[in-house]
Amino acid sequence: MFWAARVSRFRSAPILTVGDAVASFVTNPDLTTTDMCWITKRDVHHQAWGPSRVAQNSSERLDSNSLIKPVEYRKLMPRKRLINVPDRKILVAVFFLCLPTIGSGAALFQMSIYTSTGDDNKSLTVDLLHQWANKGLVPFKKNIVTSSLPKRMLDSVVVANIPQLLITMSYYGYNNLMTTMLAAAEYDSYGVSSKSLRVTWPEKDSQQKSTYWLSIPYQYAVPILVLYVVLHWLVSQSTFYVLRIPYTPQGEAVWSDSISSLGLSPLLIFCALLIGSFIICLLILLSLKRFKSNMPLAGSCSAVISAACHPPEI
Question: Between the CA of residue 185 and those of 11, 61, 279, what are the distances in Å?
Fold first, then answer.
């Protein structure tokens, strides 16, 4: 750690945050994006932009086959929502991962109602919640086995841990969307009022601020992390493997009456569904929030950030 700290002093400043990118491009402007401050992330991804005239006459000329003629803008686009920033494929993938997970939990919850009451048309009531709070465990009786016990045990253990895998995958996708949207919101905030850049290595005697987070601000990261920890715990307590082996008064195991089953706690499944739905609602509400200014959408696109970082010539 000491050696890494010593070496880092002689390295160039890293580009880890939006502030790092802005500081880098303001210090060393990119000639290929001169006079193109209105380009958007969409323009870059669809290659609907071209090298500036300054770049065409310099040694930093880009490959002419990779770009087409520049886009002409007449006015800035209206204020967008945060949902317009992430790539649509990632957005669809995350929601298609989260929603089926909630749907599977709802199906498991309905199954637990049927298992605990024996009534397929039974609905959730306060009395039923109170009954679950007192009862706690509801095994799947159709999974009772009388032979081949290890195979059934393995099946139940795998099924009981599948929700944990789905929740972990959804967390990575959720974190990716939050990082993308909040980074775009930070970049947009520079177009509202003058503010200090949040950089990794602040310049001495400057107004730059040292970053204390890389992807998600603490006011978002801490609550989300706590919610996911609680969700993981609820799921681990709501679906689990159960092995019951009765014994005779003489201490002999009665294997014919043994039960190897997937245990359910309906009350905790219900709580997990509430937490999971709340997490998804938070993401939806955040994604529908509008940017404070009508700056072109940049996201994490360095070309768009570069185009906006050309100080006026004095």
Answer: 29, 31, 20
